[in-house]
Amino acid sequence: MIRLEATPFESLSQFFLLLSENISVFVCLSVLYYRLCCLVGNMLEWCLPKDMDLEGVEFKAIASGSHRVTTDFIYFRKGSYFGLACFANMAVESTVERGARMKSVGILSPSYTLLYRYMSFLEHQVRLQLQSPGHYSPLEAFYEDKRALLPPGGDAVVTACPANAWGAAINHSMHPEMKITHPAGCMSQFIRFFGEQIMVLWKLALLRRRILIFSPPPVGVVCYRVYCCCCLANISIPGVGVAVPEFRPFFYVNVADISALENELSYVACTTEKIFEEKKDLYDVYVDNQNVKTYRDGLKPLLRLSTADREKYRKLTEQRQMLLYSQEENGDCVSSEEDLFILFFLEQNNRIFQTLSEVAGSTDPTVTQESVRAMGLDPHGDRLFLLHLLEIYGYDTLLVSEQLCCS
Q: Does the keyword section mention Transmembrane helix (predicted)?
């Protein structure tokens, strides 16, 4: 733990404060210059509780390249915990600070589903920290009000979303929490940004591939794309997918996360560091703007849209337009685009695995053109996707009709 209260360079500090619902609080330096102006790098300055292991979090709190933006927010992972940081950049008349003061205020929690509740608090606090560096009393009061014991060890398994939450989604009981977690509109923005390409991302997510999304700052909206990708891969049929790798959201990552990503079998993350594109062993799929690409020969055919993909996307956009019309004409405030998006892919995934389970339990366990169509897939265009799916989810005892390769 680095304490800088006594340093004569405290005015040079760019503070980061980390809080959590099960509260941990800290302040770190983003950049510190010594008298000779040598760059030291990101440094942790202050935290509560003081024994919290926050090694490396100073590199996650402020995204690389953030000096180019005025405000931003960042979701990230620290071990088994999730963090949210709000960043702000303020011009100052100071040659020592090189004309800019940059700070980030954030929270850390075992789950990301409640982090957004404190977004406005963090945004307010980072503005206060810009104006009054080192004034921690509101943060200390917040810590005392919210504090609870963090789970010991920090080695709990982190998943995209608990299975019971997705079961509850069918009855819309999860809607209030999801609305708090991510502001209304993030999924509709996801659809508009990727268009039909979301069907490609859906397949890759369901296959539990390692997906890395690149974008220059601001990175907040890109973190929402990570979240939306996770929503593509959920299944609520009991027992399905328990033996496959979890599709784990890492949110923002940088070069300090390389060793962690090397050991991951399945994840989705975002980065502002272009060097990751060269680290081809770290990912299966690289997303640059709307360009989805892979260097894996076995996955390249999956980047092409099938007839069924285009039909599903047409249905999704049609349902979305009907919902928007209902909201405008009837004042429907119960349903949301977020519900629609989540349930659309949840039901599609359930449809696939329900059909596969029925085929596996039949006297003739052969996947035919009819059963593929019953899954909502294209017997010809989705054949490779289906073969990958059967292998990954343990349906390798099923036979595949030869008609699928020539339909």
A: yes
Buried b (16+ CB within 10 A) or exposed e, 63-80: bbbbbebeebbbbbbbbe
pLDDT digits (tens, 9 = 90+) for 48-66: 777 777 787 778 888 888 8
Fold of 159-354: Rossmann fold (3.40.50)
H, E, C per residue of 322-368: HHHHHHHHHCCCCCCHHHHHHHHHHHHHHHHHHHHHHHHCCCCCEEC
- Read off the pLDDT of residues 307-326 as tens digits, 9 standing for 90 and up: 999 999 999 999 988 888 88
- CA distances to 31, 33, 41, 171, 198 from 38, rounded to whole Å, are 10, 6, 9, 57, 45
Sheet with strand 81-91: strands edge to edge = 43-48, 25-29, 16-19, 100-109, 81-91, 71-78, 248-252, 267-271, 210-214, 285-288, 291-293
Structure tokens that stand for 237 in this block = 């049929």
Residues of the chain with CATH 3.40.50.11500: 159-354
Q: What is the pLDDT of residues 237-266, one digit of tens each?
A: 999 988 899 898 999 999 989 999 999 999
Q: What is the DSSP pairing of strand 291-293 with strand 285-288? A: antiparallel
